[in-house]
Give the backbone structure.
Amino acid sequence: MSRIDGPLVWQALQSLREELDAAERDRIASHFAGQVRARGFAAPIASSPVVDSAAGVLAAEGYCSLASLLAPAQVAEVVRYFRERPCFNAHVHASSDKVPRRLGEGAEAFHYGSYALDDVVAAPFLVELANSPALLAIAERYLGCTPTLYSLNAWWSFPGLARPAKVSQSFHRDLDDFRFCTLFLYLTDVDARGGPHAYVRRTHRIDLLEQEMAKAAPGALEEVDPQLRASVAGGAFRRGQAYGLDPAIRQLFGHLADMIPGPAGSGLIADTYGLHMGIPPESGPRLIFWARYGLHVNYGPNAAPVEERLIASRIPWDDRARYINRALLRS
Ligand SMILES: O=C(O)CCC(=O)C(=O)O
């Protein structure tokens, strides 16, 4: 697809996603997955107790915690690598002012310091982790087809800002694809004050949401902001719509809202269509990495493809690997 057609198709699909309710979105996702399966890049899904259990929890709850994704020595190397590079003042590089800033030299004046895709790809261990058979198998189970790895990102969340960042430090839904899931890897230790990711379980699936809503106190939903109500009920919603720590979310779903701390090297895989947020860190900066798995090449705001050799030299490179990583590659 050309550099014009890619964004054009992405924008059209994005508008469609904003108009669909959760059930329609899911139906289209199944068609997409069927088309991908028909094109035959599937590998036999590696079945192991870890993969089976993580895929089951992800489907049932919306996220699954993952321990020991990287060893302490690997984490130290990754953190050292990023500390030596400039970062950019937004959650994703594409939304920043594109001014490189170093840690200790102005970067911390902003909520976020994210890295350019080339630097994320060149970081040690991360491309290998995102392409590990176990994570690909979990994503493949969840999506119903071979995943497309459409976004890699790493960023600092800095403490001490007067207000939380818009959207991402407020409960919100992501709308990247008709079905997708996100691996988050903590690269610093994250306790309750270290900026844990928070996720409202079961808000990723309309059937589960309906079950939870049926348990809500009579009238509880009427008090909720109409946009939030539509979203909570699995209806259409706008991208970028955020709900803060809306008391209604606490009232309706408090018992399902998990804060997810973990040591550096651990993480989670989540369907971030479900309500989620990053709690602003208080005790120190948090460094985190994501890898996003979806149904197709998703020319979202993160797209800035890298040279094939940067990835191909790192992992077993065959047709399937090229397919999975193609959104990240310059053609
Ligand atoms: O910072 C976090 O833990 C959450 C980031 C987030 O909300 C997102 O990537 O959509």
The chain has one domain: 5-328. The first strand starts at residue 63 and ends at 66. Residues 193 and 282 are 5 Å apart (CA to CA). Residues 157, 168, 174, 197, 272, 276-278 surround 2-oxoglutaric acid (CB under 6 Å).
